[in-house]
């Protein structure tokens, strides 16, 4: 039984399905270290969205996937290193300033993001859900600055 269950703070495992995440469940994960599991239907929705995004990108430019973003939206991101576009995009948006947010807020961001990916629509590989779940379940927190692209404003 997890600390969250023993403290009466919610379920020992929060199932992320992309549809029914509650504030109480987020609190259980962020503050009381409840574990997360990815629902099969949520994983299926994420995988379906990734297939749709890949199919669309094979036929026409897709903002941020086959093109740059912002002022570079009209620049093709393909070529010999097209597969590295996602990593470059992540790195370009990883800046921020100010003090780091609390670890529990970082876990909030992770659990909410994982649930959003399970909802459908992002187009990222469904394997990202497993990585996020591993990070959350490992008790890790992502260092995020208070101001900027990574942290809450």
The proportion of strand residues reads: 5-15%
User: Structural class of the helices, strands and pairings?
Assistant: mainly alpha
Largest sheet: 2 strands, parallel
Radius of gyration: 17 Å
The total beta strand count reads 4
Shape: flat
Instruction: Quote the distance from N terminus to C terminus.
Output: 36 Å
The percent of residues in helical segments reads 40-55%
What is the count of helical runs? Answer: 6
Helix/strand order: HEHEHHEHHE
Topology:
Blueprint: H1 3-6, E1 13-16, H2 23-32, E2 35-38, H3 40-59, H4 85-92, E3 96-100, H5 103-119, H6 127-137, E4 145-148
Helix pairs in contact: 2-5, 3-5, 5-6
Comma- or semicolon-separated keywords:
disordered N terminus; 153 residues; 4 strands; two-stranded parallel ribbon; mainly alpha; 46% helix; 6 helices; Fumarase C, Chain B, domain 1
